[in-house]
Design a protein that fits this description.
heterodimer, A: alpha/beta, Ubiquitin-like (UB roll), Alpha-Beta Plaits, Rossmann fold, 4 domains, 17 strands, B: alpha+beta, Glutaredoxin, 2 domains, four-stranded mixed sheet, elongated, binds iron/sulfur cluster, binds FE2/S2 (inorganic) cluster
Chain lengths: 596, 156
């Protein structure tokens, strides 16, 4: 039990746990204290000072986010002294800030701008130092842009990259007036260990870190009458997009999103969930093949555990950090890239459209997907498989630009041919989802029966813990898989790259005996992706997760192998899962990269 | 293994491989090589199993841990106010004129690098400068020419 202490905030008495900060205590009273460097996902830094409050009876102005309460403390959050100090702090931040809001990507969605607006910072009290700073813009990465002139050095990005992701691509370099956020040796982000996950982007309070946006390119494609512009939407987008367009967190907007995409002028609105289902058939089959080759044929070249490969942030992470484990990665492309390869082959053929006239666009909760689409391997259709990747945020911008009243749209349906999906495809958007979807299918292939869980819900792999384990025992398999009789299939699920490191260290130490590992680079899986609406925090991700599972429950079909369009594509185009044709279009190879 | 790698391995053995031993290891490298190169930082990161970015962040924080290649003699002229009031400008001119390089640059023969530094604590004997570890105070342009002349005649 924590000791309780008595304090007052703005004269209101409160009894709170003594290990709470002033900021937490104020939240209990629904008093808002402004913050910038503080973030619920991260450790306390206490460097921006905008959260200062007055501690009555002392001449201190403690930072609310970094100061624990103690008995008898009297706090004022809005006294004249506090207001003046806070205003000065914001003014000082702005004196070193390239505050040309009208020419900033974050205009309208910026915590610094919001604060400046709240405090009506109109006059410039301090000398402006922006010109003296000689700031750098780094836009060499296909995913992430960094503009130091918009940086307030709150270090949220550094903490994000270290604490949530364990990548440490960013650091604080130099000191004093020269202090800046930097990569190793100030190299471009594209030249260091960065995974392009974009978590730093959706934790940055300003426009200093943003996604590379391709909105204009997509508008141009749409308005070109020669081009047939196909769009695919990832599972997690439907549970995030609403937040940008007036809905509550956790609202599912699938039908409205489809309606909006049609009104934007896309020629076909299709679903990445379709290729998520396809991924399950390919990856599930791959897993079973690997189990057979490793356990029965004792082939030393076949590696277990097999790890999922849907998350391009995770792929780049393992390429840098654990290149010796690349053979453990499933060779399956991510659903986005499977989709891209099929759009310019299968879809083009069926629709009788020349592939060179197809522009394939994808809407992703993810910035790493931009990098992935840009990888040289991703041209198996003979063309660039995915031409443009937009984040959930960029789609919201396009919808606003088009003057669409999103909240009033009717619900519409995806177009046919690669537009059909199942609940299994939907849950790809949440951590544990790929595992669950794969088990729903693989178990049934092996035993001929459904997974033995109520409503097909494999709750053991769900949840928010960074690393989760599950076991599923195979009994009475069909003849082909008889060797698996009595085998307990051991699975691990990790999300957030810091947990990926944990699982890889377990594997490396030889202490684990997993068969199958799912890793998603972002906290919560794709629903917490670096391209999702800002802000993000554990509560927001939880609500999106609930929405994903609700969407799954609401689907008439919930197992990938029962998706009728998936059955059709195997019949008319691919042949079997894991066939030669599949390998040509749906599987890929990885590249070892430097760790330093 | 090249000499830098050997040096770093030795330093790591001497000080230990914890993160807190980072600073003495960097210092050890700078002592030997006059600066800490990108290569050396990566070697340290590997040796200590820590992110290379953090080695850079730490090294770049400290003014005397240069991470760009330095000349054999690093001249650091105090840029703070007491020295400025006593004529740093003139000192700077004299140095630049003699060595034909500007602040931040190294002479083509790799012998001298000219830098500025924050307060050296010699305000009472301003203006002051350092050449490697040696302090020179009460400077005047003539004094500077004399001192530099001596250094120029010196072999490394
Ligand atoms: S980062 Fe924010 S405050 Fe700065 S220019 Fe952009 S919108 Fe304005
Ligand atoms: S880039 Fe963004 S998150 Fe990082 S320090 Fe600057 S303002 Fe803060
Ligand atoms: S994109 Fe991800 S890996 Fe890259 S710097 Fe940002 S948080 Fe780190
Ligand atoms: S929010 Fe408290 S110091 Fe930055």
């Amino acid at each position: 039990m924590n000791e309780k202490v008595n304090i007052t905030i703005n004269g209101v008495p409160l009894r709170v746990d003594e290990n709470k900060t002033i900021l937490d205590a104020a939240e209990e009273l629904n008093i808002k204290i402004p913050t910038l460097c503080y973030h619920k996902d991260l450790c306390v830094a206490g460097n921006c000072r905008v959260c200062v409050v007055e501690q009555v009876g002392t001449n201190k102005l403690p930072a609310a986010c970094a100061t624990p309460v103690h008995d008898g403390m009297e706090i004022m959050t809005n006294s004249l002294k506090v207001r003046n100090a806070r205003k000065h702090i914001i003014e000082l931040l702005l004196a070193e800030h390239n505050a040309e809001c009208t020419k900033c990507y974050k205009n309208g969605n910026c915590e610094l701008q919001e604060l400046a607006a709240e405090y009506k910072i109109i006059n410039q009290e301090f000398m402006n130092l922006v010109a003296d700073h000689g700031c750098t813009i780094d836009d060499f990465s296909p995913s992430i842009m960094k503009d130091d002139s918009r940086c307030i050095r709150c270090q949220r990005c550094v903490r994000t990259c270290a604490e949530l992701q364990g990548v440490n691509a960013l650091t604080v370099a130099y000191k004093g007036s020269e202090m800046k956020i930097s990569t190793f040796f100030e190299k471009p982000i594209s030249d260091v260990v960065c995974t392009n996950c974009g978590q730093c982007v959706n934790h940055c309070p300003t426009g200093a870190l943003i996604e590379k946006n391709y909105i204009e390119e997509v508008w141009e494609a749409i308005s070109d009458p020669e081009k047939h512009v196909v769009v695919q939407t990832a599972p997690a987008v439907r549970v995030g997009l609403g937040e940008e367009l007036g809905f509550e967190v956790g609202e599912r907007v699938t039908g409205k999103m489809v309606a909006a995409l049609k009104r934007l002028g896309f020629d076909a609105v299709l679903d990445t969930d379709f290729t998520a289902d396809l991924t399950i058939l390919e990856e599930g089959t791959e897993l079973l093949h690997r189990l057979k080759e490793a356990l029965v044929d004792k082939n030393p070249d076949v590696k277990l555990p097999m790890a999922t490969s849907c998350s391009p942030g995770w792929i780049k992470y393992i390429e840098h950090m654990y290149p010796e484990y690349l053979p453990n990665l499933s060779s399956c492309k991510s659903p986005q890239q499977m989709f891209g390869a099929l759009v310019k082959t299968y879809y083009a053929k069926e629709r009788k459209i020349k592939p060179e006239n197809i522009i394939s666009v994808s809407i992703m909760p993810c910035t790493a997907k931009k990098f992935e689409a840009n990888r040289p391997e991703m041209h198996d259709s003979g063309y660039r498989d995915v031409d443009y990747v937009l984040t959930t945020r960029e789609l919201a911008i396009m919808i606003k630009q088009a003057g669409i009243e999103f909240m009033k749209l009717p619900d519409e349906h995806y177009d046919r041919l690669m537009g059909e999906s199942t609940g299994a495809g939907v849950i790809f958007g949440a951590t544990g989802g790929v595992m669950e979807a794969a088990l729903r299918t693989a178990y049934e292939i092996v035993t001929g029966r459904e997974v033995p869980f109520e409503n097909l819900n494999i709750t053991a792999v769900r949840g928010e813990d960074g690393l989760r384990e599950a076991k599923i025992k195979i009994e009475n398999p069909v003849k082909e898989w008889a060797f698996l009789d009595g085998v307990e299939l051991k699975c691990a699920v990790a999300h957030g790259l810091i947990n990926a490191r944990e699982v890889m260290e377990l594997v490396k130490s030889g202490k684990s005996d997993y068969h199958f590992i799912e890793v998603m680079a972002c906290p919560g899986g794709c629903l917490g992706g670096g391209g999702q609406p800002i802000p993000t925090d554990p509560e927001i991700r939880k609500r999106r997760m609930e929405a994903i599972y609700a969407e799954d429950m609401g689907m008439p079909i919930r197992k990938s192998h029962e998706n009728p369009e998936v059955k059709q594509i195997y019949q008319s185009f691919l042949g079997q899962p894991y066939s030669e044709k599949s390998h040509e279009l749906l599987h890929t190879k990885y590249l070892p990269r430097e760790r330093y | 293994m090249n000499s830098t790698q050997t040096l770093i391995k030795d330093l790591a053995r001497q000080y230990g491989r914890d993160r807190r031993n980072l600073l003495p290891i960097i210092q050890g490298v700078v002592e030997q090589e006059n600066y800490i190169s990108e290569f050396a930082m990566i070697e340290i990161a590997k040796e200590l199993n820590m992110p290379a970015s953090d080695v850079f962040g730490t090294a770049s924080f400290y003014s005397f841990l240069e991470h760009r290649k330095m000349g054999f003699y690093v001249i650091r002229v105090c840029k703070t106010i007491a020295c400025a009031m006593k004529g740093t400008n003139q000192i700077m001119h004299a140095i630049e004129d003699m060595l034909k390089v500007k602040i931040g640059e190294t002479t083509p023969d790799g012998k001298f690098t000219v830098l500025q530094t924050n307060c050296l604590g010699w305000c009472h004997k301003a203006p002051a400068m350092l050449i490697n570890d040696e302090v020179f105070t009460d400077l005047s342009p003539e004094r500077v020419r004399e001192i530099l002349g001596e250094y120029m005649r010196k072999n490394r």
